[in-house]
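Q: Predict the assembly, please.
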Amino acid sequence: MNAAEYVAGLHKLRRKVYIQGELTASPMEHPLVRPSAAAVARTYELQQYPEHEELIYAQSHLSGERINRFTHIHRSADDLMKKVKLQRLLGQETGTCFQRCVGLDAMNALEITTFEMERDLGTPYHQRFNRFLQQVQNENAVCDGAMTDPKGDRARRPHEQADPDLYLRVVSENREGITVRGAKCHQTGALNSHYIIVMPTLAMKEEDRDYAVSFAIGADAPGLIYILGRQPSDRRKMEDDPLDRGNLYFGGQECLIIFDNVFVPWERVFMCREHRYSGRLVERFAGYHRQSYGGCKVGVGDVIIGAAAALAEYQGVAGASHIKDKLVEMIHLNETLFCCGIACSARGCAAASGTYLIDLLLANVCKLNVTRFPYEIARLAEDIAGGLLVTLPSLRDLEHEEIGPLLKKYLQGIAGIDISCRLKMLRLLENFTLGPAAAAYLTESMHGAGSPQAQRVVIARQAHLDHKKNLAMKLAGIETGKEG
Amino acid sequence: MNAAEYVAGLHKLRRKVYIQGELTASPMEHPLVRPSAAAVARTYELQQYPEHEELIYAQSHLSGERINRFTHIHRSADDLMKKVKLQRLLGQETGTCFQRCVGLDAMNALEITTFEMERDLGTPYHQRFNRFLQQVQNENAVCDGAMTDPKGDRARRPHEQADPDLYLRVVSENREGITVRGAKCHQTGALNSHYIIVMPTLAMKEEDRDYAVSFAIGADAPGLIYILGRQPSDRRKMEDDPLDRGNLYFGGQECLIIFDNVFVPWERVFMCREHRYSGRLVERFAGYHRQSYGGCKVGVGDVIIGAAAALAEYQGVAGASHIKDKLVEMIHLNETLFCCGIACSARGCAAASGTYLIDLLLANVCKLNVTRFPYEIARLAEDIAGGLLVTLPSLRDLEHEEIGPLLKKYLQGIAGIDISCRLKMLRLLENFTLGPAAAAYLTESMHGAGSPQAQRVVIARQAHLDHKKNLAMKLAGIETGKEG
Amino acid sequence: MNAAEYVAGLHKLRRKVYIQGELTASPMEHPLVRPSAAAVARTYELQQYPEHEELIYAQSHLSGERINRFTHIHRSADDLMKKVKLQRLLGQETGTCFQRCVGLDAMNALEITTFEMERDLGTPYHQRFNRFLQQVQNENAVCDGAMTDPKGDRARRPHEQADPDLYLRVVSENREGITVRGAKCHQTGALNSHYIIVMPTLAMKEEDRDYAVSFAIGADAPGLIYILGRQPSDRRKMEDDPLDRGNLYFGGQECLIIFDNVFVPWERVFMCREHRYSGRLVERFAGYHRQSYGGCKVGVGDVIIGAAAALAEYQGVAGASHIKDKLVEMIHLNETLFCCGIACSARGCAAASGTYLIDLLLANVCKLNVTRFPYEIARLAEDIAGGLLVTLPSLRDLEHEEIGPLLKKYLQGIAGIDISCRLKMLRLLENFTLGPAAAAYLTESMHGAGSPQAQRVVIARQAHLDHKKNLAMKLAGIETGKEG
Amino acid sequence: MNAAEYVAGLHKLRRKVYIQGELTASPMEHPLVRPSAAAVARTYELQQYPEHEELIYAQSHLSGERINRFTHIHRSADDLMKKVKLQRLLGQETGTCFQRCVGLDAMNALEITTFEMERDLGTPYHQRFNRFLQQVQNENAVCDGAMTDPKGDRARRPHEQADPDLYLRVVSENREGITVRGAKCHQTGALNSHYIIVMPTLAMKEEDRDYAVSFAIGADAPGLIYILGRQPSDRRKMEDDPLDRGNLYFGGQECLIIFDNVFVPWERVFMCREHRYSGRLVERFAGYHRQSYGGCKVGVGDVIIGAAAALAEYQGVAGASHIKDKLVEMIHLNETLFCCGIACSARGCAAASGTYLIDLLLANVCKLNVTRFPYEIARLAEDIAGGLLVTLPSLRDLEHEEIGPLLKKYLQGIAGIDISCRLKMLRLLENFTLGPAAAAYLTESMHGAGSPQAQRVVIARQAHLDHKKNLAMKLAGIETGKEG
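A: Predicted assembly structure:
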């Protein structure tokens, strides 16, 4: 599949999609959706560039065929590092979330976990999963990985909720398959996907076993309803001219997907009421996805740093020591994130199925830094940009007969740079720090792949605190810790 | 003047106003302008509340009359502290910039500086200013304080710019007055003001004396052109229903004002080519305005903290220790800003005219913290709010026949709280952190009253480093610093 | 009393003092004690300086006499601010803790609380306290304020401890007075005090009423045992020559005081088993003491900034932009602390007794910042100082026949500055960041007047979160918070 | 060579060593030196442990023999990662600097740079270096890598200094070799080394070519003078009993080494007046050494985290949520450093000689984080430890007949843990945060391998800012950056 075929294919899907209160027959033509599909399409376009061949392609461990890396099961630490590098590259190219990692991360987590379930329980979860995977690889398909349930009252577990559907669950089963009901929130790129892969959102206990369910369905399965979320400044994308849009080509997208009694045939059920395995599936998916942020957000960070540096230049302050210092700080923070993405990959190990899993501790450290540093990078970018970032008139004013010339006169920066450069760059940076891309670069950095507290819990669990206490006791000359 | 009279009065002004490429006959009715005028109107409404009497009213040092504090010249440290408390109160009430401080700060800075000029030079700058001030107090008028020039190439001084108008300047004078040309950027609340008070943007040298000019003019003076700036998510305010607006009542506004050969009669000229006094006027205005942020932004911070706390409650996590801890951190940072606002006021001293000036060092420390802590407060608010902050469907969807009930089912938080509470609160917080109010709470916190580097320069100058070195030398037993 | 009389008086006290395993007959002559008494003596010496008269003297509200401010009960917000300024001055003068605030803070907290107890209960606690206070003012005496109990297992309340003495308590009483047993930790300046004022360490409940006890005793009361704590690099003070000492004149001191069945006559008992009043006594003392840190630590910060600036100069880097920037940051952080000290004072209010209490919320905010910024100031000072801070040979080596000249050759900084300046300044900064003064500037900043978590608890309690929620609800258009 | 042979060998060296003003005949028996040699000895002892075999041993690329990794030239990214893991292990084992990395890093930097010089210039620098390396590998010798010159006035370059010896330089040469004069500061582990490897301290220009010199000499070469630096609390190591020492076994050591006309035979000269190659030698050595800190300091961090966790337990607060949260934060910061160490290794590439060089950008990012996070980890450890950290009496007091029992009574923590555990752990943490180990964990983290500004300069140079600008321009729709 190439980029054109990809987009064409999406147009054919018949789905129930609501955008700002209206059922939308052709969502892929909607200006709020198009830029996000364009970002996914970039993952196909890269296939054309020989210089990116090593990153965008991998060899299938199932078929031995050359496949798009976004459908690949990692078989080495090198694979894990290449994933991160590919993500950084695409973040640089699109300046937004290109959405395809979530399905990739879901597939890798399922590959490992279905292997263990089949090994331990005999149910052919792994065989089913591998057949699905083979199809995805053959089709070069895009999968949405759907994990986050609405959760209702967060102080209660699934079966304690007033409404049992606040976590997605199996409501019935028969010989052909299961029927599920519930919803999944924050589905990045949902409308750009061919398949939806559902996973439970937390480690389930016995009482919640109906919620321990994982499966794949076609994006147009009956009973699925998509409701598009709003983003900051989303209306900018709907304006006739693109002048104030910032990022001219790419954008993000998040849907709430409602599963209104959706039927799933057994062939596509990868976990059914196996609550004992739900925790590790969640932990692995989250781990892979926390690694991902050490690549994609770094790529977007590169663009923001570049935008700030360009603005400094256009405004005549590129030589000021405090500006240079702020750029160094932005780079430093951004590369620290990259270090975390690389390190959890380089220390990846083979799971029982032979698939490489990232170092869980370091992947969580990676994501926890991602909940902090992008905010500081954005703050520094605003510092460098100056107040015009939020007081710039519409670029439409520039074309106005009377005030256009005045604006050009008064908003001119250094000589030799056309004023449009400065203004477009300000719009781009506005987009990243306070516009729709901020939803991806900031808030998603906070909550995507789990909120910071989720990372802290894993870090605490993975930290081997007793080993550290023993190290200290040895140097302090404490034998048992209870001497005397 | 009361609030209704205030708004009515603005409608009568005949001004040249451009909004997104169009000349707008009735700007005060424009949905992008109305909420910002409502915020200013609040400074009149407060006059009705006996419980706020001590803050909103002051006694004029000119007439002895009771006046609105926003037209008052500070005559004690207590006045300075009351200003900060009033600002916090209005920040709490409006959740945005209520715009009236900039004129207040300009008048106080001019009062001190025109006194010195008249004393030293004999020109009746102070008499003129006092007559203008008396009129403002009588009318309870709103003044815009206009300082920031476009600056062009920032590495060059005014007279070195390719276009001499990139800083506002005197282009000619005659017996009646002066004619000026140039522009002022980032004019918060420009359209809501009766008068524009212009000041130079930096300390001028001899070669730049034409730029050392300060004056007041009516907001509808011939030659003035207003171009409204765009804000993040500004189109939300233009939607038919207010559902996704966040802050239902109030908003901000910034204009670029162009002075296209504007004539100013001598009676309203408060500084003309007195470059030696331009620096101290700038420093004082900036000082007062940096103090202001220790009040108004703290008030907005209170609302954001409240919004985050309410959301935590609605979502069932108010009891989680990490949530409580984040709220404490937000409060701590916010109150630290308040401490700075109060401290620079409490340590204020009388200038030669008897007017109280804030402690310049501490006012700059105040503002430098304001360039940091609101960003962290906003980040923590996003942490508490959850990802729905940027993926929430339009509230229009809630009213849709088919999906409205589904949304209500799946977005329900804890029992007993109507879902609309949660959703409205999310929209409010989106407004503050990524929407139009973020322009005021974040970017304006960074650049308003001068960018952080400007504060650092003043801090360095005010820090008495030699005294500190001597303290260290004494304790180290160093006599001269060059002994031996 | 002047400084000489003060020191002479201490020599006469007959106390049981242990220093590093030995009973010490003349503790005031011990090199570990002398520098700390010198710091207290400075509070007497200041009385000689007319330029500090307004700070060091106050007018007694009891007698109307001029008294040393360290024995004064605050009767206005101005008094509170002068206290902070005096503390900053003394921090600058001594570069360490001058120890006298703790007694001052204890007396002010007791004045307010004994007033309330006598008013409510009729017991003459306030009369007794005022007689004691009068004596302290007459004598210009130094009081140690003793609050922190050893606490044993911190997860248990006093009466739940395995050993009931782990919190100081009343073990018996008779017509003459009470007998107490227990210990108080971290007693800064204990050996330099004439009186010990004991207070409970937390809000007691009914079951713990024996622990709700407050009283004053003479520093040489029978049953008192002092054990001197060790400090980092304490042995430097015991070396024959003072070369490597850093701060040549002043230092700190902390003791563990054991109360081995100490008798207290009723006349000096200010609270006995009044558990309902213990919490507010603790909160007020802690509040005053948290204010104090916004003065004294700022003064020490001034010295550290001065030392770093001097070193930058001696080493030829004073002009480097990154060095200037770090100095500005240090000043900024230090002045932010000062703002907090001033603000909680300026917003002080009269308690029922007419005594001024600081704003509790802001005083806790002050202290919480003190647990952070001094560490960053010290870190930046180390950055500027360079590695020689921890690799500098003994200054004794400088006097050695063979290597002295070589050291002078190789450790020379810029021309015109004798090498001794650089080396002494390095030793001073070492003292502050890693030596004995670091105990006061860093660890005491963390834990003195309560550890950071204690401040967070008060901030949470004082923050009026419901008011903030209401502000947000109003702007979001939420009526009841439960609508619908 | 095993550990015993190593220590025995050092005793035999005849060197001129001054310690605190005295020429010391047997420095290896000095209590200030012994613990640091013990830390190096640990790099030999590890050879005995089969579980560490993969880390401590490597295969020589010269001889194919199994050698101690501290003498190994890295031939793969895996080698680079193993170095970091070995360093973390030794940091955990010793809780201090084990000193052997500096020589390792010097050798790897020289291997690459001598290869290039010999290739380009024909001088047999590489052959000489390889013969020296072979000897070091055969002997399993310890090398000191000596780079930092005294620098005098830092605003001047070497030849501009008042005294030309303030940077080490070639003063003469003849057929046998060269004679050098100067000094090297901050020589960690100098007295524990068999060889001293000298390198220039910065990129030299033509005028400074005499300073572009690199060579190796025996640690007892004539003309070498060692002067031991002081450390915080160094006297603790000289006390008769080890009770208050903290780390009972290991410590650090820094010397100033003076080269008083030292002769170096040509066979050991690896660079002589090749100023064009001096910059890259410095950059590579610094790069390797900045990588090192991502291992060793992380290991020490592990011990500090363990000490804080143990103290929390002993004091009954291990279950408090704020304590757990602080431990998570410490772990998070520590593992972030590890990520940086691993990432710059995993992205290492082969230089022309086939030797693997770390990723320079990421290695500098690593070190810049090391100048920050250990300070925060130490601060949090002090928070958890409580004030007793700096007020604890001497442990000698515990053994005193009268007060020993009282101390044991009052300093008891939770039941079941002997009091000695608590007290020893407090001493260990004091050692790390304010004692001699703080010199290594904090100040050395700041300045070792170059001060933070040095890292910022490299980061700026390596950041490819133009590429980032182009990325932003593409998305903003800017063609040339100068359009129009």
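Chain A has a mean pLDDT of 96. The first strand of chain A starts at residue 16 and ends at 19.
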